[in-house]
Amino acid sequence: MTSLLRDKLLEVSNSPPTLSNEERLALMEACDKAKLALETPLDTTIRIMFGGFESVSLRLAVDMQLIDQAMASKGPVTANELSLASGADAILVVRIMRMLVAMGIFNAEKPSYTCKPLFDLPCATKSTHFPYGASQIPPIVFLPEYFEQKGYKNPTDADGGSFQFTYQSKQHFFDWLSARPRLQGAFNTTMGIQRMERGETWLDYYPVEGKLRANADGILLVDVGGSVGHDVIKFQQRFPNLPGRLIFEDFLTVVSSATDLAAGIEAISHDFFRPHPASVRGAKAYYLRTVLHDWPDKQALTILRHIRDVMAQDSVLLIDENVMPDENVALYQASLDLIMMGVFASLDRTVKQFEELLDAAGLSW
């Protein structure tokens, strides 16, 4: 039985079947559960202890330009070639590449390495997005010291969380980020990757054409905190004939990198902690995508109330967010919430927490 199951799994790994996204996710979940069931207590301990090493190894590979050099080679590349191209010691390259092979990022056929399709991302030609992910590690690592000092109180203020404790800074993460162009660029790219198609989006199930109608001169949609316009661009591509202007707002350091926008799409520099300009008043819809989970209730209420103040009687607020289940929370979901806790002093909310937040902001739902 064991050998038969092993052979079947190897067959699937060597020649993955064509699956729908739902089938793929279900199979991954089943494999994860099987792996956990097979682990001994020692296996589990080792997995947890070594859990952070992968992110650190990946960050080193990015900083040493190993991934970009391997991608540029368009084929197999040796450790010596990577050493010459990057200026790093060959033995250091070998040691980092061991981790990347074990992580499934590279294939190894001695003496060469070949980059796997992980980096064939349509919105990123290089590995520039990974430094952003690595920048989130220190505030999470320091959570034990932070909570010991704070008496194990749940963080409630974005200006006094583990991020500020870790970096001994009064800056919020986004202010800190804007002063670091490389990380800001990595963040913008990461937001684009997160917006890649992963199953259905709100455009698939919300009755856009039935609910959202504006005249040609009016504002159809305002994407608040809309990065470089990923979502309004997709909206226009999906509904090219809907009349009305499409606007996205974000900080100047973000929207300034949005170029070659199609007709009908506008970028506005705006801080959503300040009142919205009159130019976005009375839009048919205001859209928030993964904005509120960056902020605890104190700041989230400010964001929502400023939107409320520019809404017309027939305006709608569309909130596109992660929703934390009340039970059976997957490791990935729990990990995202930990990132919100460590970096933003915030949280991924349950349905009930969203309802309470909207009530407090004076919004009906």
How is the secondary structure organized here?
Blueprint: H1 2-14, H2 21-38, H3 41-49, H4 53-63, H5 66-73, E1 77-78, H6 79-86, H7 90-102, E2 106-109, E3 112-115, H8 130-135, H9 137-141, H10 143-150, H11 162-167, H12 173-178, H13 181-194, H14 202-205, H15 208-211, E4 219-224, H16 230-238, E5 245-250, H17 252-255, E6 265-269, E7 285-289, H18 297-310, E8 316-320, H19 331-344, H20 351-360
Question: How would you describe this protein?
Answer:
The chain is α/β, with parallel strands linked by helices. The chain is globular, with a radius of gyration of 23 Å. The strands form two sheets. A five-stranded parallel beta sheet has the order 6-5-4-7-8. The protein has a three-stranded antiparallel beta sheet with strand order 1-3-2. The protein folds into two domains: 20-118, Arc Repressor Mutant, subunit A, CATH 1.10.10; 121-365, Vaccinia Virus protein VP39 (Rossmann fold, 3-Layer(aba) Sandwich), CATH 3.40.50. The protein is built from 20 helices and eight strands. The active site is at 293 (proton acceptor). Keywords: Methyltransferase, S-adenosyl-L-methionine, Transferase.
